[in-house]
């Protein structure tokens, strides 16, 4: 009898878990359709972020991301990341860069492209999704989806955990929060603003918030509570993530 009850319990738990994952996937697909849909298959965008210029190109499963800057001597530095490799050039000449340093460049370039292309990266095979319920923010109802990553294919920051907030009516991704362990540890909450359509994609800027309580432990439970702290005014603005001067490859 005990074995039968345990089997029933674990079977029910597995079914419930699959249902939450399926619901999360449905919500994400709705959001991707709203933010650009098939436009994510062919991307060719240029823009400025802070003091650097970026090129983000995708053709099906192939991608090429570039970060372009000028050093104090006027030399042009390009950090280039593709499916196959990552490398740096200075005035067009390929450089020999230590792996540990190149890894930092790769992470930085990929991070900018990742946030720009959200929510499309949530289709990546390494992404695991879980529906965690509904929440009301500024009078709107949002579906709340927790995202974590498989170690294989999840990159150096595979331990990071994200929570995305999708407008229940149209699927718009208006907020996100995340917990990170890469280089340092912390939690952030982002509010999207300045949405604009560029090359068929909805791109957004973000206000970056952190808890005012610096002693708040970095845990999944506290990550899930950041929307409540935001509503209660217990988050402080740290920075703004603003991408400017967009143009498409067709311009």
Order of adjacent strands in the largest pleated sheet: 6-5-4-3-2-1-14
Number of strands: 14
Residues in helix, %? 25-40%
Average of pLDDT: 90
- Written as H for each helix and E for each strand, in order along the chain, the element string is HEEEEEEHEEEEEEHHEE
**Which stretches are low in confidence, meaning pLDDT under 50 for 5 or more residues running?**
5-16
Shape: globular
Task: Give a structural overview.
By secondary structure, this protein is of the alpha+beta class. The chain has two domains: 1-35 and 124-251, no CATH class; 40-117. It is built from four helices and 14 strands. A seven-stranded antiparallel beta sheet has the order 6-5-4-3-2-1-14, with helices on one face. Strands 7-8-9-10-11-12-13 form a seven-stranded antiparallel beta sheet. The protein is globular, with a radius of gyration of 20 Å. The chain starts with a helix and ends with a strand. The relative contact order is 0.14. Residues 5-16 have low confidence and may be disordered.
Features:
251 residues; alpha+beta; 2 domains; 7-stranded antiparallel β-sheet; 25% helix
Task: Walk me through the topology.
Blueprint: H1 2-35, E1 42-49, E2 52-59, E3 62-70, E4 76-82, E5 86-90, E6 93-94, H2 99-117, E7 127-137, E8 140-149, E9 161-167, E10 173-180, E11 186-198, E12 201-211, H3 220-224, H4 226-231, E13 235-241, E14 243-248
Antiparallel strand pairs: 1-2, 1-14, 2-3, 3-4, 4-5, 5-6, 7-8, 8-9, 9-10, 10-11, 11-12, 12-13
Protein name: Deoxyribose-phosphate aldolase
């Amino acid at each position: 009898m005990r074995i039968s009850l345990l089997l029933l319990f674990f079977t029910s738990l597995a079914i419930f878990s699959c249902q939450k994952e399926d619901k999360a996937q449905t919500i994400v697909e709705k959001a991707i359709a709203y933010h650009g849909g098939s436009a994510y298959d062919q991307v060719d965008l240029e823009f400025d972020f802070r003091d650097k210029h970026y090129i983000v190109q995708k053709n099906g499963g192939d991608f090429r991301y570039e970060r372009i800057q000028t050093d104090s001597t006027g030399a042009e530095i390009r950090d280039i990341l593709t499916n196959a490799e990552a490398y740096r050039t200075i005035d067009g000449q390929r450089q020999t860069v230590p792996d540990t340093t190149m890894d930092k460049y790769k992470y930085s370039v990929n991070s900018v492209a990742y946030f720009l292309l959200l929510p499309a990266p949530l289709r990546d095979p390494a992404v695991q999704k879980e529906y965690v319920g509904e929440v009301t923010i500024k009078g709107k109802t949002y579906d709340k989806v927790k995202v974590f990553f498989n170690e294989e294919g999840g990159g150096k920051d595979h331990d990071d955990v994200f929570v995305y907030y999708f407008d229940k009516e149209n699927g718009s991704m208006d907020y996100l929060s995340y917990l990170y362990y890469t280089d340092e540890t912390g939690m952030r909450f982002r509010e999207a603003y300045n949405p604009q359509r560029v090359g068929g994609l909805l791109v957004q800027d973000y206000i970056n918030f952190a808890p005012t309580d610096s002693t708040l432990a970095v845990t999944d439970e506290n990550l899930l509570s950041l929307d409540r702290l935001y509503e209660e005014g217990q988050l402080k603005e740290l920075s703004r993530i603003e991408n400017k001067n967009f143009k498409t490859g067709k311009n």
